[in-house]
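Record type: ASSEMBLY
Status: queued
Input:
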Amino acid sequence: MNATIRAVTRVAAFKGFNVLGFCRGWEGLISDLVKPMSARSVSGIINLGGTILHTTRCPHIRTKAGLAKAAARLAEYDVDGLVVIGGDGSFRAAMALSELTDTPMVGIPATIDNDIYGTDETVGFDTAVNTAVAEIDKIRDTAISLDRIFVVEVMGRSRGFLAAMVGLTVGAEIILVPELPVREDEIFSVIKDNVSKGKRSAIIVAAEGIGDTRALSSAIEKNTGLETRLSILGYAQRGGSPTARSRYLASEFGKKAVELLAEGKSNCIVGLQNGKITSIGLRESAGASKPLDESILRLASILAT
Amino acid sequence: MNATIRAVTRVAAFKGFNVLGFCRGWEGLISDLVKPMSARSVSGIINLGGTILHTTRCPHIRTKAGLAKAAARLAEYDVDGLVVIGGDGSFRAAMALSELTDTPMVGIPATIDNDIYGTDETVGFDTAVNTAVAEIDKIRDTAISLDRIFVVEVMGRSRGFLAAMVGLTVGAEIILVPELPVREDEIFSVIKDNVSKGKRSAIIVAAEGIGDTRALSSAIEKNTGLETRLSILGYAQRGGSPTARSRYLASEFGKKAVELLAEGKSNCIVGLQNGKITSIGLRESAGASKPLDESILRLASILAT
Amino acid sequence: MNATIRAVTRVAAFKGFNVLGFCRGWEGLISDLVKPMSARSVSGIINLGGTILHTTRCPHIRTKAGLAKAAARLAEYDVDGLVVIGGDGSFRAAMALSELTDTPMVGIPATIDNDIYGTDETVGFDTAVNTAVAEIDKIRDTAISLDRIFVVEVMGRSRGFLAAMVGLTVGAEIILVPELPVREDEIFSVIKDNVSKGKRSAIIVAAEGIGDTRALSSAIEKNTGLETRLSILGYAQRGGSPTARSRYLASEFGKKAVELLAEGKSNCIVGLQNGKITSIGLRESAGASKPLDESILRLASILAT
Amino acid sequence: MNATIRAVTRVAAFKGFNVLGFCRGWEGLISDLVKPMSARSVSGIINLGGTILHTTRCPHIRTKAGLAKAAARLAEYDVDGLVVIGGDGSFRAAMALSELTDTPMVGIPATIDNDIYGTDETVGFDTAVNTAVAEIDKIRDTAISLDRIFVVEVMGRSRGFLAAMVGLTVGAEIILVPELPVREDEIFSVIKDNVSKGKRSAIIVAAEGIGDTRALSSAIEKNTGLETRLSILGYAQRGGSPTARSRYLASEFGKKAVELLAEGKSNCIVGLQNGKITSIGLRESAGASKPLDESILRLASILAT
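Status: finished
Output:
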């Protein structure tokens, strides 16, 4: 987030724009929590997690009254262009807002869930993946030392992008994602096959979106007779110093967003597609569901043999 | 663990002893899972988490039959001295075993819980503290960005040593340990005071030993009206590459344990007391409860103002 | 490296091939340091730095005699396909070897230098970038606290790929790469401009390929009158647990390499191009020089204002 | 540093003192770079490296004029007590200053060199050790993969405290410190012995204080015929997020320093001795040289066999 704010602010300042920061996301726009930004006000933040502008869920923006206030504020401050940094919800709000204002808006996909159609990767995804991988590498120490099964729940909301990449890169024996349901008995038999091969520990990476992981791990213990533990990786996945790749995407996305506004483009989001920095319409992005690359899951299952 | 195994093995080899490793802890002693160890067989492991000898809970050792088998095995292999690496449970088993055998035993306290009487610090404690601190530093990014309360549950079994040190060093607003119960209304008022001071986020570090942290975080949200999240730091605390300090203690403890056996000492555990490597009797250690230094909690509450 | 070896071995085993590992690179092929590999022999290595097969520079392979021996060995073991994991030098040797044998060869670009034509990214590059970034983040603490200029030399052999990405993502004030020489007086004036803006510290990321960084930092101190320090980031950049992205590329590249051999393809290298896993001819890759994306440097200089 | 500033400020505020921060160390006292500090002004810094107050070497304080100015400033601001955070040089300056003023002063030993008499450990030492250990763990990956000798130079100024602890905890084959010179031929023979045991790589940890490590590594390569590389661990050792232990010491030392001043004590430094937070006179500390515990070196050499 901070690396994105830094990029947007400095590229905009470089192009001669005045930059305002609305604190606490949409709430800041509605409630006039605004602060002037300069190249200096974003110095020393590229390596910091979180966001200096703060953020919050803002139900108010989903109401007519909230949207009207937001539109009024954009007029009041005579905003030539609004950069919306966030995920799904932020972009839906931007779309609704675009009905009430002519202020051009460009979205920058920044969410650990990587569930935005129109970009192969979101800002923060690589950081969250590496945070989860580092934790699971440690959990594996215990799994192996104690010959235990670990079900590790990672974030990702209703999607499996985070779980799939984490599972592949930690060498998980099993990866469970909402997009590709696996029957419990299949899970049991994979574990039993492993035991027959002499592999007495296993890491099962499960997306939070698959449902009750606690019940699952009990079922595994009950059925396989092997000690099974559940570990829910928490909010650490959302914070921490960003990886180089997240900082890189934040920088490129921030630059692209300002360029698009400078060119008079509007109501689109920037993205990374086939290795290039691109953009697509807000509406197009919101309207489509990003497919999960299932080949990653097949590869993971081969590599976990 | 591995750093301890390395130290014991190499110091013993240096002193001309033959070294046997019993795999999977007591179960290995009972079920004859033994492997000859040499200086070479422990190379390249000082920086690895977990244990190359594996370990497991072994109910069998709590039975007369199990103890008898263990004692018989010690005789069979003509063991001159047994080094027991572990915590509370391992040492209680060692004490019971000492009734049935003359084989001298020395314990090395290695547990993240730091709850062994007779040592100011256990092997692995510093590693677990730093793992938890690194995670909570990341959680704080989210807490601050989102103005949220986080209840973070750390391990420590029935004691608060881990929670107290973690809470002090992350600058937790509140630390909850079993040794010093805090009434819920006190917790609420501390949070409300902070809000009145303009501090809208808080980290509450809670030892797993205090009970239902999920109920607690709901109660906090309900009472303070602030979004509250629970994050349970999992088994990552038990693994990972050991910190320098844990490696240092492992090395000193391993050396001391072998020296004690070489001197004919028996049935004691090594420890760090007032900055010196020492030892006390197994029975004395098992019989006493290690006090928690409450001044740490007072200092933490002053520093979190 | 290990993640690549794991992927090649397991995918090949999955496809029913026997797998042999030649230790210490070409030297192992010449001197018959071979070991049979199985799915099991690569377990638990995906998170380890270095390579279980060891490696070494092998001048011998640049001689007719060495090549002849290598070719003979391939025949002796009746090798159906050779996967060559490494960089520039390894691939040149593979090309020379291909004159003397019909054994199909496929290269997997694995070098922190990212200087292989035909792939946008090499295995290990992301890991090296993040290692350097983490170190420089720490150096910046000192730079800012002490108001100092730091010249930080990173690896990359004769190219600036590593320096450019590291410089962008640490927010370096200046990035120096061999592909785009900067005159010393330009460097001085950038620093002086920063001072006039009240920015009394600076990080200058320099590729090892630009020449004498020690002389440079003395010149900067002499000319600007600001305390300047040189920090040469060492071999830590070559080791350490791989990042998720490096593990991902290793897995995809390993799979692709085996598939190409299974399809009877020969004398090519796998790569990532425009976000897709692809391949190009060994000869084509060796014949061309990979261009450095200078837009990264321009973006970095804007973002460092 | 920041953790210490936080502790001093908050404990002092808690006791009802007004707190002033002098920026850039002694220079700030001389040149009137002062800022009022409150509990709020040190929030969110416990996990940050460096120092929010900045620091700098200040030759001026070694002059009569400088000291006079500093003394005058203490009177001007009517300072009841001065907390001096730093090392050797800072404390010598404090002693000189104490001749010209009655303002009580208490020193907090904060240096990665751990070379202050009167404390077993300084703030920052544990952090620097762990940073060096993490880097050398990565270097060992390369050392083992390439069968190479690495000479790794760590900081520590004229003393070997950092090198000794780092060397022990990375399992260095050889540790070189100024306090215990080792003849080159002894180094060569240790390496040759290792080779004869089949150990073809080695890590030699050398304190910067032993002299020319570049010449040493050339001599090793020349004499043993094994590829030898020098890696100088740089300023990263001085920065980075502090370890839990450094934060703990910073907190305890800060509290103790304020308590001593509140009790009217003067001209002493706080310390950790035999596991207790203590203090000794500034003069006593400056007058004595802290001994290096050579048993650590003996233990390291046994454990590296």
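Annotation: The mean pLDDT of chain C is 95.
Annotation: The first strand of chain C starts at residue 19 and ends at 22.
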